[in-house]
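Would you mind writing out a protein's amino acid sequence and the numbers that encode its backbone to help me picture the idea?
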Amino acid sequence: MSQLKFGSAGVTSKEIDISGQVVQKPTGIPAGVIGTALRGPAFVPVTIGVVNDFYAKFGLTDGKKFGPLAVTEWLRNAKSATYVRVLGVGDGKKRTSDGSVTSAGFTVGENQPRDGDGLLFGNEYATSGSNSVSGRVFFLGAFMSESAGSSIFSDAGIQGQGSITPGVNTAVPVIRGLLMAASGVILRLSSSITSSTNPASNLVATEQSSQGSLFGSVTLMDQNVSKQDFVLLLNGHKGTNSLYPNVITASFDMTSPNYFANVLNLDPLKIEQAGHYLHSHWDVHNSSAVVTGSGLVSILSGAGATTARAVGKEVSAFITTSSLARNVGSDTVPNYESWTDRFSHAKSPWVISQKFGGIATNLFRLHDLNAGKGNSTTVKFSIENMVVSTDLSDRYGNFDLVIRNWNDLDSNMQPIEQWRGLNLNPNSDRYIAKIIGDAHIFYNFDQTESGQKLIVEGNYTNQSNYVRVEMSLDVENQIVDSTALPFGVRGISHLVTSGTMPMTSPASNQIDIASVLKRAIQLPVPMRKTITQGSGAKLSVNPVLYWGPRFEHVTSLTTPNASVMHDKSLDNFAKFFPDFSETTQNMIVGDNSGTPATVENGTLDSDLFCNNMFTLENIMVTTGSTGLADSTKWDLATYVRAGNIGTNDVAKTRRLSIDDFVQANRRFLKYSFFMQGGFDGVNVFDNDEAEINDTAVVADMNDANRGRQDGPSVKAYSKALDIMKNVVNVDVQLLAIPGIRHPIITNAGINAVEERFDALFILDVEQVDNDGSNIVSDNQLPSVTLTVSNLSDRALDSSFAATYFPDVTVSDPNTHTNVIVPPSVVVLGAMALNDAIGHPWFAPAGFTRGALQSALEARVKLSKTNMDALYDAGINPITAFPGNATAGTNPKGGVVVWGQKTLQVQSSALDRVNVRRLLIDIRRQVRDIAQTIIFEPNREATLAKFSSAVTPRLQRIQALSGLERFKIIIDSSTTTQSDIENNTLRGKIYVQPTKTIEQVSLDFVVSNNVAA
């Protein structure tokens, strides 16, 4: 009888979806997945039980990130998954002496990915030359004056102080945008006071060759109204097409179609093509202020001096860098180019009490549970319903905290979480830290690497899905007066640009840029000034409005609260700016109440800067006959930003006090605030590094300048593996890092599970095309032969790892787009299906338990020869057989896993996935039993107890087709007297796993007579 040789195996199963919508606690041993996500904590293992909980914690799948797709697949049929999200950690080591993190974040103007063209900084869009410059940060601004009736600057205490005419108030130089220039590009403005011809497309940008000026002309519509148009010149930029020109006309008028935030580049990945990137901008509506150099700017035009408005232009725009060289700072001047920090979380300013002895006290602040950028503009907060205690034995009052959608309106609130009846009494059941939670779980990177580990701080479990509370020590220790209530918030962190220094009066018709730098200032945070609606005789109070930061633009001074236009300046106030430096002045400062002003930088105190601190005590109220704030006259209440409110007995006005918090006034005493910061810690100009994908890992390993093993993408995954391999941190039965294929990480993954000894690693093998190039695009098809050869060359040998081929196409459940995913994504789904309809010791392969429920097609259609070659190399094929339908339409069709080999080289039972998972399961069960006898007397009775506890577990596995037979020896023959003296119990468990059928050989005999 001839023998048929089978290299690999072949049938489909119908989809079995047991994942419901009911939220449930995790049950069972989870699969562990490491990857990126839209949101969520970073480098903290989080275990969830259903996919909707995963989406709530880490965000939806987005058609790009493989980790969330893998968890989605696993949770189709499992009830527990542990996810570790990665973000930028640089070299993964503690901060350097200057406060930065090596290889983290980015430095503006640093080398971008090259195409091997040898051009300046790899930037093919700039003209290179011997004196070419590296890119840097520019501040774009304009001289602005308050519109008639507006007090946007004067309320903030930043009225112009210098003047051509002494004693006359002047315009204020206001920063409107922060621009980052590509290397080889210098930004200037077209101006009537200097040569401003358009730069040639072949111009090499140097300080000497650049066209334009640091001061730019702004076009006027007529003698009195500014059109606010200006021209930005990109010296050195080739301006190769109309989409990315080197001359851009824009406007400071936010209502104009060519408003600069509409026409400048907002995509950091396009910085080289566009020559610039607008990182942030602060908007000013014409009703509040207009661009004009009134009282300050006078220019030269043509042959002689004249006033600006006589020629239809005014030099009232400016663009400037730091006064120091690129990527340099001092103790008074920030380094604006260095953003070299690891990931961080957004946080709010401190919420403060009313003043006691003239001083407001910090009470608490809120930290975003989600790490990284973008989360600070997801939610905002409102404090409301403050109740003063009338109980003499308990003077603590109550208040509510509402977490709201960032983009909602006061008139149409969209609460996300509501926390009612909170207080500041640490002994109360309604203590805010107890109710919302103050647990802080983090990986302490700022230790030596040997000392880095997960840290848990705080006293109370987090109940909010969005924030944790940090309490001040004075509240925790009950030092703060018990009558304290949350009256407001400290001033937000603000840019340091010497903005509050007075500008000296110009000595000539041209203002020097140094003077502007000493006065250029970030806009004040917009505050709601009244809570009224209507105007004139129809003016009335609108009790739905909240005090504090105003999230809508004022578009009409007569009805300031009627606008529904979202003020995007708040989005930019909430952004991350560097504040990590230990040796130079930081770019942004905050949480620094009491910091004295300096000669170089003026006001640094974030409370005093632009009067940005908010407190209800700055509301001027009208009192009634009782002496309290009159509940019928809140239409007269005004927020006085500077807080200079006296008592006027004639007008019956004074500042608000806690005595006014009676029930009739309570609905008017509420305010909102927001968080700032949150950083991904990655290079935003490099798509691969920003996504922390496999291409970035490869780049780290190929570029010595990136640090190789200490490269930022390599370190992100190796640190996550450090967390996952620690059995104290997490308990997992499977581990995957979907889409990360480079050996530096996959080898570390194998080492991690071998160190754990209780998990199987699903490895995504490197794939190369027929030319031997790594697969980096969906347009490349992998070569089976070279993929097999490359894996064989690695000489891997482990029964704790398995790998599969090829990639498959799935439909993203949320974007409903087709996505090509690495095998580990769908193999986790097959493993979960196997365990749901079988057991871990069954083979997760074939049409019944290896059906890939969401797979539409395999990336490569494998031949029998291909599958044999893959299986011989220890790679499990993924395939669909000819004539079978796509997944989910036919129980006998679809894409299936067609193999179950581990990467063990030696032929034994352990070269099969089901056997390795069987032993992992047995080890885990026996280990759990062993935990119950730790510290029990080491005597024969204990040994017998242990043996009798293990026996029924193995009998069950045997009954369920996991074992053919087993033998347990745990007695005095395995535990000697010497072991007893050393406090040790020893035992032996012999198991014979049940073999699976992987080959079927049939003889078909042709006969003239077949006996029955």
